[in-house]
Amino acid sequence: MNNDYRVRIQTVLHFIEENIDQEINLEMLAEISNFSKYHFSRVFSAITNKTPMTYLTERRLVRAVAYLETTNKTMLDISTLCGFSSISSFNSSFRKLFKTTPREMRRSKQEHSNNQLMSSNNQEELAPSKNYDVNSNNNNNFLRRVWQMNIEVKELPSYQVAYVRHVGSYLETYKAWATLSKWVAKNNLPATEYFIGISLDDPSATDEYSCRYDACITIPREFSIEGDSGISFQTLSGGLYARYQFYDTIDKFAIAYQSVYGQWLPNSEYEPDDRYALEFCMNDPYTDPEGKAKVDLYIPIKSIGGE
Q1: Residues whose CB is less than 8 angstroms from the CB of residue 213 and which lie 6 or more positions away in sequence, other chains included
Q2: Nearest to 262 by CA among 36, 12, 39, 76
Q3: Burial annotation 164-185 (CB, 10 A radius, 16+ → b, else e)
Q4: What distance separates the 2 farthest-apart alpha carbons in the chain?
Q5: What pLDDT, in 10s, does the model give residues 226-277?
Q6: CA 144 to chain CA mean position, Å
Q7: Can you tell me the distance from the alpha carbon of 278 to that of 107, in angstroms, rounded to the nearest whole number?
Q8: Listed residue (223, 273, 203, 154) closest to 41, CA to CA
Q9: Is the Cβ–Cβ distance between 238 and 219 less than 8 Å?
């Protein structure tokens, strides 16, 4: 893995370990990584195989288990020391991960351990937990299996587009495309224009029904932009992009994102630029003989350390 990526993600992991009792949010972690929030979530998830907030919660719970085993601290004290906003959120998260409550786990540990908890104040402090390592065999074996991906680095021009924004599950973006298609037919746009999808949020880090998606079509320079209910206009920035040609069932499209962000980018000479990825829709999967979607995925990139 590119050393710059390793250092940046490791810095985030170390920050979490050192500040696990503090309030930590996605914006804070993205700033520490020096990635934009949009790209940080995808890079982190691809490399660690967990979303940033899932990883944070699990590290807090692992720390809580250590407190349960080695100290006599109260549940409220432990939840506070592990950064939970309330005892109820602590209990809920604990049960979700371990399928038991903190009290039940402490009781079980006491019953099956020969080393009883000591009440001495001198022995209440917790030993430092082992930091997560992005090179760990247990956590990131997949990084050693970098695919030979057919990635092409291309310079794209800027595009003026008409678009319909969808807010909700990405499985229902067809609604936006249906609205856009009616507008396209009404305005007799030439068949040479591009259909482009833009996933504005990472579904692994955003609530499913809060995800934003723009269904776009490029429009000719001479096209007269007029107000139309449900239709908006914007300019997509040009620049350097990494193109990954996808052709498979749409349910596997998320793997394409993960592959580029987690496998190709960290082993390239590039890092994600602060622009949105573009999904050029090259066919209609509903009319494809195999029911597959053909998408040219363009990830915005820049040279590492570049502006």
Answers
A1: 165, 166, 167, 170, 173, 176, 197, 198, 199, 200
A2: 39
A3: bbbebebeebeebbebbeebbe
A4: 81
A5: 767 789 999 999 999 999 999 999 888 888 888 888 888 888 889 999 999 9
A6: 21
A7: 53
A8: 203
A9: no
pTM of the model: 0.73
In 3D space, the residue among 166, 183, 195, 156 whose CA is nearest the CA of residue 295 turns out to be 195
Cα separation, 285 vs 86, whole angstroms = 47
Whose tokens are 């985030």? That residue is 12
